[in-house]
Design a protein that fits this description.
The protein is mostly helical and about 260 residues long. Helix content is about 75%, strand content about 0%.
Length: about 260
């Protein structure tokens, strides 16, 4: 038991050090880098609100358009950031993998935790700002918001691990994944809800776990949201399957990852 506790303590310190290293590498020592993490989703929300307002469109669930798009953009950025950033994590930290205490799993977890924590903080800041501006009401069901985000983080981490393992053998995988991933920006519920779709379209889009998680988050955010079409079990099972597959591939490729 003492050996297990010591091993977990060492791994925890390693992951913490990797998070700090990743934060400095991505955002630098100035505050400008961190401000960009808030500015990017804010800009996307502003552009979408401007376009939809000019077209005379309203939020499908009532309330302000800025709130509706924030609850779609931020979950998408969580998925996009984690799934793509983990792909290059092993290559960027190759020198550290020469140390026996640093494993590929630690490197991937360090980057996944940094991305998820950063975006969750950004989400809280944006919602708080919208509430101060009088555009957002109090969160209807915080449990559902947190559960939807947590399941999305797990799913995204699994996808990122799989990407990382594939890239070990196929260096151009990032470009192919980016091309494959691009349509999902329009298919993951940023612009619409399941209830607002025709039955035929809804039937297909409900197979998209990202869409299910966005619906889950919004069902906890808006009291007027129709959660009839959310398949909670499917979202959870998809995330578990994806992360287990990612862990299996990470374990399978761990020796090759140290010798890229």
């Amino acid at each position: 038991m003492n050996e297990l506790r010591q091993a977990l303590s060492v791994q925890g310190r390693v992951i913490y050090a990797l998070i700090l290293r990743e934060a400095l590498a991505k955002y630098g020592k100035s505050h400008i880098g961190y401000l960009w993490a808030v500015f990017e989703p804010s800009l996307q929300v502003l552009v979408l609100v401007t376009i939809f307002s000019a077209l005379g469109r309203q939020s499908p669930v009532g309330g302000d358009l800025a709130v509706f798009f924030t609850t779609g953009i931020v979950p998408w950025l969580i998925y996009s950031g984690i799934s793509s950033r983990l792909s290059g994590a092993l290559g960027a930290n190759q020198a550290l993998l020469s140390y026996p205490h640093v494993t590929p799993f630690d490197v991937l977890m360090g980057r996944a935790l940094l991305e998820s924590i950063t975006m969750l903080v950004v989400f809280v800041l944006l919602v708080a700002l919208l509430q101060l501006m009088g555009k957002a009401l109090a969160v209807y069901d915080l449990f559902h918001v947190l559960m939807g985000l947590m399941v999305l983080v797990v799913f995204s981490t699994g996808v990122g691990m799989i990407n990382s393992a594939i890239r070990i053998y196929f260096d151009s995988w990032d470009k192919l994944f980016s091309a494959f991933n691009r349509p999902f920006y329009f298919l993951s519920g940023i612009f619409f809800t399941a209830a607002s779709l025709p039955p035929q379209a809804r039937e297909y889009l409900q197979w998209n776990p990202i869409f299910q998680c966005v619906e889950w988050v919004r069902s906890g955010f808006f009291s007027t949201y129709q959660n009839t079409y959310i398949n909670y079990s499917y979202a959870v099972v998809s995330s578990i399957v994806m992360v287990l597959l990612g862990l299996t591939l990470t374990q399978y490729t761990r020796h090759k990852a140290r010798n890229l």
